[in-house]
Amino acid sequence: MYVPDFEYHAPKSVAEACAILAELGDRATVLAGGTDVLHKMKVGKLAPEHLVSLKHLDELRDIREEPGRVVIGALASHNQIYTSRLLQRRYLSLPMAAHTMASNQICNLGTVGGNIVNGVPSADLPPILIALNASIRLTSAHGERTMPLEDFFHGSAQTRIEQGEILTEIEIPDQASTGSTYLKFGLRRSGALAVAAAAVSVQVAGETLHGVRIVLASAAPTVIRVTGAERSLVGRRIDDDLLAEAGYLAAQASSPRDSIRGSAEYRRNLVEVLTKRALRKAIDEGHA
């Protein structure tokens, strides 16, 4: 398969990239790691007249700690996230999610920004980032704006990024979470798309849950939070029956589809099991 002809741009700064995108409008597509864009071009799903490569924007590859937050550059690769000492120390669930994603070759190229902007409901990084209350920074020739990551998705492969914008940073605020985890079920042992997945962060004090965020992947047209299941847990003493109730509520709030990877009923059952297991794992991490 061959990609269609296009004009290639390799700006040296975010400002230059934004200026090019503002000039070219919908004739241009942003190229980050390329693992999705180039595939779509090869199979005929995408045919931009211009590709604007971000490969020279090294400032967007940084993972750093700042007062009150951890900042991840949108061009950080999946392997950078997996091997980051900072993320391993602060939010181990995020490197572990990155480690489940794909082959080592793909993880060397694929970026956290691309995983988010594609907007697919089976993406591995958005669920755990939402569970950690992450926000994103979007930059264009007209300025910058931020939004909670959970507000970014509004349909299958549909996001709220506007024409000419580049996702530049992901910010994880300091928080009272005592444990977090991401569990998924795929049809292969490693590197498989999620048939269903659950990400959880909890705040445990004694034997009571004081805060919880539950996020599902491959369980609806978008990555979703299940706030009803969250509310059922807060302020209550932790036991297996409580976690089973939350798993049931999460499954009922999901709206998965039938596909070759699993029926809607099968996925709903997986959501129930994975939510309960993810809650238990995050809670146990908090007690460690």
How would you summarize the topology of this molecule?
Elements: E1 7-9, H1 14-24, E2 28-31, H2 37-42, E3 50-53, E4 63-66, E5 69-73, H3 78-83, H4 85-90, H5 93-99, H6 104-109, H7 112-117, H8 125-131, E6 135-140, E7 143-148, E8 153-155, E9 158-159, E10 166-173, E11 179-185, E12 196-205, E13 208-217, E14 224-225, H9 227-233, H10 240-253, H11 264-287
Helix pairs in contact: 9-10, 10-11
Brief account:
By secondary structure, this protein is α+β, with helices and mostly antiparallel strands.
Task: Describe this entry's structure for a reader.
With 288 residues, the protein is of the alpha+beta class. It folds into 3 domains: 7-53, Uridine Diphospho-n-acetylenolpyruvylglucosamine Reductase, domain 2 (2-Layer Sandwich), CATH 3.30.43.10; 58-173, Uridine Diphospho-n-acetylenolpyruvylglucosamine Reductase, domain 3; 179-287, 2-Layer Sandwich (Enolase-like, domain 1), CATH 3.30.390. Helices cover 35% and strands 26% of the residues. The strands form 4 sheets. The protein has a 5-stranded antiparallel sheet with strand order 4-5-10-6-7. A 4-stranded antiparallel sheet has the order 11-12-13-14, sandwiched between helices. α9 runs antiparallel to α10 (240-253) and α10 (240-253) packs antiparallel against α11. The chain is globular. The termini are far apart. Residues 1-177 form the FAD-binding PCMH-type domain. InterPro entries: CO_DH_flav_C, CO_DH_flav_C_dom_sf, Diverse_Substr_Oxidored, FAD-bd_PCMH, FAD-bd_PCMH-like_sf, FAD-bd_PCMH_sub1, FAD-bd_PCMH_sub2, Mopterin_DH_FAD-bd. Keywords: FAD, Flavoprotein, Oxidoreductase. It comes from Geomonas propionica. This is Xanthine dehydrogenase family protein subunit M.
